[in-house]
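Intended use. Records like the one below are meant for learning the mapping from a protein sequence to its folded structure. Do not use them to infer anything beyond what is encoded.
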Amino acid sequence: MTVERLKNYIGGKWVESDSTTTYPVTNPATGEVIGECPLSTTSELDAAVRSAGIAFQTWRRVPAQDRIQFLFRLKTLMDEHAEELAATVTRENGKTLSEALGSVQRGIQMIEVATGAPTLLMGQSLEDIAQGIDCETVRQPLGVFACVAPFNFPAMVPLWFFPFAVACGNTFVCKPSEQVPFSQKLIWELIHEAGFPPGVLNLVNGGREVVEGICEHPGIAGVSFVGSSPVAEKVYASAAATRKRVQALGGAKNFIIVMPDADMVHTASNVSESAFGCAGERCLAASVILAVGDAHDVVREGLVKEMEAIVIGDGSQPGVTMGPLINAAAKQRVVDFIELGVSEGAELVVDGRDAEVSENGFFLGPTLFDNVSPEMKIASQEIFGPVLCLQGVESLDEALAITKAQPLANANSIFTASGKAARQFRYEVDACMAGVNIGVAAPMAFFSFGGAKGSFFGDLKAHGREAFDFFTDRKVFISRW
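Structure written out for the chain above:
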């Protein structure tokens, strides 16, 4: 196949990057190089920001009802190209087609919610706050926003941000992951077809230099980031130091508590999908199962049965239920964790290194450790791969104490038939995304998305109503006539 060199999209046009340095984009299922992503320079970022800044002066004056017409057109185009976009996600990321299509549909839902801007941007007012004096608030856009997207959901994650930003009257610069730039290339082609005015939405490919440029650029009002917690913290500190609004979504070590009264068949199926869906490369994946009392043996048996049914292979092929990891380095990192778990004394129940796959890609089978303890690194550090830990505990109180000791708090769940246990979990759990008898506690587009503690840096989270708070400022008017 022809190896395509990607372009940037600035000021309503596709432009070649000036950079002579590129990142090889590979198909994780085959190892084949399918593209070259230019590692653009800060001067190219500056051109995109200047274009967005000029466009903002006009775009912010476009009535909200008119702005969302562009989003309606984009939504229609994305519906029409959903399967093509899913195939692109699978080709560059490795997800199965069903997983890819699900993520694309989630992204389209973000556009749907953003089209509610005329209602969700409304302010508040109260007359006679004192005799003859009235008060009102209005929401106003802030300028140019930017996002730095991760590799694990190439199509979906930027859609957490830019539809809301432009619906609010801002303009935008997107930097997709250099590992998976083709999904956003296709989306920006649809953006161009939808007729957005030049400069409203811009795309700059790149690596670390562009990320640092986004954090430091004086023309950018706010930054949205999704990635590992160490990088999220650095992005937050750097961007906030230049007085930007920041929402930096970091990593996870998600716990699932299983009570003895849970529906064990339902639990095993949901936990397995949570842990091994998308090859475990998602911030909502189950990492540690805390089995309370008699639940342990039943959970272990159910998980092994579910894992035996997983079909590993090229995600574009029918019947495959788990694809490869993103690249060779990611696979090696997970293999290193498996070896570490063995050396730490955990029981290796299912060894993903033994998986037999005919393809030459970056494949690793699902892995299950039992008899882990919280101090083990496999039970405390983010692995970001198809590795699941199982630990027996005596009570719900003990399980909750273990979750609270973890510095990351993204998404935790409990499986139980007890309303009392569910309410205690809901009341005490630290994670801001929590589920009851739900394996993947992924909020819908009209609710906010983001963790707590070391899993999130900022104040206002992604999508939902909080997006309209993040992408606008409130101005208060006090009037006497």
